[in-house]
């Protein structure tokens, strides 16, 4: 069986990395730690199935696990392309605090235009637009933590 302090340490380690899911098995006990959005849930299974949910430090206890889903698009947004985060990290609109933003609403972009930086594990990863078009909306704030698959920009393709 896993000790509570070991589980807390594993939660902290998973939280500090880009790992989305960690699964361990030890002496018939099984531990799964997942990051489904902004809530982390630990499920512990031991010989006749026992499950417990332990919220991460600072998380609000919940009665049920909620899946993080992309916001539903309005019918008018159906023709827009969504640029999503390819990883968990911190979103930056510019290469440095003094520099101007890579893109703003209304800017025209090509497939290779850098639109932001995602910092993950102290590495700066430039994210390109993926499509040619016009930036219609920026969905996250500068310096915000983003999840894998989280929508960042809406682009009206040309």
Describe this structure in words.
- The strands form three sheets. Strands 4-11-9-6 form a four-stranded antiparallel sheet, with no helix packed on it. It has a four-stranded antiparallel sheet with strand order 8-7-5-10, with no helix packed on it.
- The protein has two domains: 1-68, no CATH class; 75-157, RNA polymerase II/Efflux pump adaptor protein, barrel-sandwich hybrid domain (OB fold (Dihydrolipoamide Acetyltransferase, E2P), Beta Barrel), CATH 2.40.50.
- The chain has one helix at residues 4-15; strands at 21-26, 29-34, 41-45, 81-84, 89-92, 108-109, 114-120, 123-128, 133-138, 145-146, 151-157.
- Strand 2 and strand 3 (41-45) form a beta hairpin.
- With 158 residues, the protein is mainly β.
- The N and C termini lie far apart (57 Å).
- The protein is elongated, with a radius of gyration of 19 Å.
In short:
Helix content is 8%, strand content 35%. It has 158 residues and is mainly beta.
Give the beta-strand count.
11
Reported CATH architecture of the largest domain: Beta Barrel
Number of folding domains?
A: 2
CATH domain class of the largest domain: Mainly Beta
As residue ranges, the low-confidence spans are 38-54, 60-70
Distance between the termini: 57 Å
The succession of helices and strands, N to C, reads HEEEEEEEEEEE
Rg estimate, integer Å: 19 Å
Taken as a percent bin, the fraction of beta residues is 25-35%
């Amino acid at each position: 069986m896993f000790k509570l302090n070991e589980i807390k340490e594993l939660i902290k380690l998973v939280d500090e990395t880009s790992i989305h899911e960690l699964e361990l098995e030890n002496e018939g006990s099984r531990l799964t730690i997942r990051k489904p959005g902004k809530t982390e849930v630990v499920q512990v299974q031991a010989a006749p199935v026992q499950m417990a949910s332990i919220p991460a430090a600072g998380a609000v206890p919940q009665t049920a696990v909620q899946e993080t889903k992309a916001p539903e698009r309005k019918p008018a947004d159906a023709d827009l392309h969504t640029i999503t985060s390819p990883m968990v990290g911190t979103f930056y609109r510019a290469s440095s605090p003094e520099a101007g933003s890579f893109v703003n609403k209304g800017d025209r972009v090509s497939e290779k235009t850098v639109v932001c930086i995602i910092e993950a594990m102290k590495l700066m990863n430039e994210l390109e637009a993926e499509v040619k078009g016009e930036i219609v909306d920026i969905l996250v704030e500068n310096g915000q933590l983003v999840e894998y698959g989280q929508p960042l920009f809406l682009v009206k393709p040309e």
